[in-house]
Design a protein that fits this description.
With about 100 residues, this protein is mainly alpha-helical. The chain is about 70% helix and about 5% strand.
Length: about 100
């Protein structure tokens, strides 16, 4: 019997899945950036659960970059550049990994 999936199809599907996961993670980091601009959000149980999830999922990765990139102080405002660098690194490394998996 002929195999249902060829190795090339399996690799392509795995690469597409990995690419989608990376895109979702980038969207979560962007959501984290947007969340940081709204400090005083009215309490809503469902919203707090979503915000907590986004924070818990993105913080471990962002902490890596926050160790090396301190926030920029602009008067009374602090600008955190680590999410931007994290997205760039994720896009570059993720693109390389997806290409390697795809073959």
């Amino acid at each position: 019997p002929e195999p249902r999936f060829s190795t090339d199809m399996l690799r392509a599907n795995l690469a597409d899945f990995l690419d989608t996961l990376l895109l979702i993670y980038v969207v979560l980091i962007i959501a984290r950036i947007v969340m940081s601009y709204f400090q005083r959000i009215p309490y809503n149980r469902a919203l707090m659960a979503v915000l907590g999830f986004v924070t818990e999922v993105t913080d471990p990765f962002l902490r890596i970059f926050r160790r090396f990139i301190p926030p920029l102080r602009l008067g009374g405002i602090s600008l955190d550049l680590s999410p931007i660098v994290a997205i760039l690194v994720l896009q570059i490394v993720g693109g390389i990994l997806v290409d390697l998996v795809r073959g």
